[in-house]
Amino acid sequence: MKAKQLTSSGGPSHALIFETGDEVIAGLTDFATREEIEAAHFTAIGAFSSAVLAYFDWESKDYVKIPLGEQVEVLILAGDIALKDGKPVVHAHVVLGRRDGTTRGGHLLSAQVRPTLEVALTTGGALRKRFDPVSGLALIAAD
Fold first, then answer.
1. 4 pLDDT more than 90
2. In which domain, by residue range, is 7 found?
3. Which of 19, 26, 37, 91 has the highest local Cβ count within 10 Å?
Protein backbone atom coordinates (compact mmCIF):
# COMPACT_ATOMS: atom_id res chain seq x y z
CA MET A 1 0.00 0.00 0.00
CA LYS A 2 1.17 3.49 -0.84
CA ALA A 3 0.00 6.58 1.04
CA LYS A 4 0.02 10.28 0.27
CA GLN A 5 -1.18 13.06 2.56
CA LEU A 6 -3.48 15.35 0.60
CA THR A 7 -4.36 18.10 3.09
CA SER A 8 -3.55 19.01 6.66
CA SER A 9 -6.20 21.59 7.57
CA GLY A 10 -9.41 20.45 9.24
CA GLY A 11 -7.93 17.04 9.94
CA PRO A 12 -5.44 15.47 7.57
CA SER A 13 -6.77 13.60 4.58
CA HIS A 14 -4.86 10.84 2.83
CA ALA A 15 -5.03 8.84 -0.38
CA LEU A 16 -4.19 5.19 0.29
CA ILE A 17 -3.53 3.11 -2.79
CA PHE A 18 -3.64 -0.66 -2.26
CA GLU A 19 -2.09 -2.95 -4.87
CA THR A 20 -2.68 -6.54 -5.99
CA GLY A 21 -2.30 -8.94 -3.07
CA ASP A 22 -2.66 -6.32 -0.31
CA GLU A 23 -5.04 -7.21 2.52
CA VAL A 24 -7.41 -4.32 3.21
CA ILE A 25 -8.24 -4.49 6.93
CA ALA A 26 -4.65 -5.27 7.92
CA GLY A 27 -3.37 -2.44 5.70
CA LEU A 28 -5.78 0.11 7.16
CA THR A 29 -4.99 -1.04 10.71
CA ASP A 30 -1.23 -0.86 10.09
CA PHE A 31 -1.53 2.64 8.61
CA ALA A 32 -3.65 3.87 11.54
CA THR A 33 -1.17 2.40 14.02
CA ARG A 34 1.87 3.88 12.28
CA GLU A 35 0.25 7.33 11.94
CA GLU A 36 -1.18 7.21 15.50
CA ILE A 37 -4.71 7.84 14.21
CA GLU A 38 -7.35 8.00 16.93
CA ALA A 39 -10.34 8.72 14.68
CA ALA A 40 -10.95 8.57 10.94
CA HIS A 41 -13.57 7.86 8.31
CA PHE A 42 -12.99 6.54 4.83
CA THR A 43 -14.54 5.55 1.52
CA ALA A 44 -13.03 3.50 -1.27
CA ILE A 45 -13.52 1.98 -4.71
CA GLY A 46 -11.57 -0.69 -6.57
CA ALA A 47 -11.65 -4.48 -6.84
CA PHE A 48 -10.95 -7.65 -4.86
CA SER A 49 -9.88 -11.13 -5.92
CA SER A 50 -11.63 -12.53 -2.84
CA ALA A 51 -13.30 -11.30 0.32
CA VAL A 52 -14.93 -12.46 3.51
CA LEU A 53 -18.01 -10.49 4.47
CA ALA A 54 -20.17 -10.98 7.54
CA TYR A 55 -23.71 -10.43 8.75
CA PHE A 56 -24.27 -9.73 12.45
CA ASP A 57 -26.84 -12.19 13.75
CA TRP A 58 -28.67 -10.44 16.57
CA GLU A 59 -29.93 -13.63 18.17
CA SER A 60 -26.53 -15.32 18.47
CA LYS A 61 -24.63 -12.03 18.94
CA ASP A 62 -22.07 -13.30 16.46
CA TYR A 63 -21.03 -12.69 12.87
CA VAL A 64 -22.07 -15.16 10.17
CA LYS A 65 -19.27 -15.30 7.58
CA ILE A 66 -20.00 -14.86 3.87
CA PRO A 67 -16.93 -15.93 1.84
CA LEU A 68 -16.60 -14.74 -1.76
CA GLY A 69 -13.89 -16.51 -3.75
CA GLU A 70 -14.28 -14.56 -6.96
CA GLN A 71 -13.18 -11.33 -8.62
CA VAL A 72 -15.55 -8.51 -7.58
CA GLU A 73 -15.79 -4.76 -8.04
CA VAL A 74 -15.84 -2.62 -4.91
CA LEU A 75 -18.89 -0.45 -5.57
CA ILE A 76 -18.52 1.27 -2.21
CA LEU A 77 -16.44 0.60 0.87
CA ALA A 78 -17.15 2.90 3.81
CA GLY A 79 -16.09 2.83 7.41
CA ASP A 80 -14.38 4.36 10.39
CA ILE A 81 -11.40 3.89 12.65
CA ALA A 82 -11.65 4.30 16.42
CA LEU A 83 -9.58 3.25 19.40
CA LYS A 84 -10.38 0.19 21.48
CA ASP A 85 -8.08 -0.49 24.42
CA GLY A 86 -5.66 2.08 22.98
CA LYS A 87 -5.38 0.42 19.56
CA PRO A 88 -7.04 1.42 16.27
CA VAL A 89 -9.93 -0.75 15.13
CA VAL A 90 -11.27 -0.62 11.57
CA HIS A 91 -15.04 -0.98 11.09
CA ALA A 92 -15.95 -1.28 7.41
CA HIS A 93 -19.02 -2.14 5.34
CA VAL A 94 -18.88 -2.92 1.65
CA VAL A 95 -21.08 -3.48 -1.40
CA LEU A 96 -19.45 -5.68 -4.03
CA GLY A 97 -20.51 -6.12 -7.66
CA ARG A 98 -20.30 -9.58 -9.21
CA ARG A 99 -19.73 -10.48 -12.88
CA ASP A 100 -23.47 -10.95 -13.52
CA GLY A 101 -24.37 -7.55 -12.06
CA THR A 102 -25.68 -8.86 -8.75
CA THR A 103 -24.28 -7.54 -5.50
CA ARG A 104 -23.19 -8.83 -2.14
CA GLY A 105 -22.72 -6.67 0.90
CA GLY A 106 -21.98 -6.67 4.58
CA HIS A 107 -19.36 -6.09 7.22
CA LEU A 108 -15.88 -6.51 5.69
CA LEU A 109 -13.74 -9.01 7.63
CA SER A 110 -10.95 -9.41 5.06
CA ALA A 111 -10.24 -8.90 1.37
CA GLN A 112 -7.41 -9.36 -1.10
CA VAL A 113 -7.01 -6.49 -3.54
CA ARG A 114 -6.76 -7.07 -7.30
CA PRO A 115 -5.75 -4.87 -9.07
CA THR A 116 -6.23 -1.76 -6.90
CA LEU A 117 -8.22 -0.16 -4.10
CA GLU A 118 -8.31 3.64 -3.85
CA VAL A 119 -9.10 4.84 -0.32
CA ALA A 120 -9.90 8.44 0.70
CA LEU A 121 -9.28 8.67 4.46
CA THR A 122 -9.85 11.72 6.67
CA THR A 123 -8.63 11.91 10.25
CA GLY A 124 -9.46 14.15 13.17
CA GLY A 125 -10.38 14.12 16.82
CA ALA A 126 -10.54 10.99 18.90
CA LEU A 127 -13.10 8.19 19.03
CA ARG A 128 -13.23 5.39 21.57
CA LYS A 129 -15.05 2.07 21.43
CA ARG A 130 -16.70 0.67 24.50
CA PHE A 131 -18.27 -2.74 25.12
CA ASP A 132 -22.07 -2.67 24.81
CA PRO A 133 -23.59 -5.47 26.89
CA VAL A 134 -26.90 -5.41 24.96
CA SER A 135 -25.36 -6.13 21.55
CA GLY A 136 -22.15 -7.79 22.72
CA LEU A 137 -20.18 -5.47 20.44
CA ALA A 138 -17.58 -2.76 20.97
CA LEU A 139 -19.41 0.37 19.81
CA ILE A 140 -18.22 3.96 19.46
CA ALA A 141 -18.98 5.86 22.66
CA ALA A 142 -20.59 9.24 22.01
CA ASP A 143 -19.33 10.74 25.27
1. no
2. 2-140
3. 37
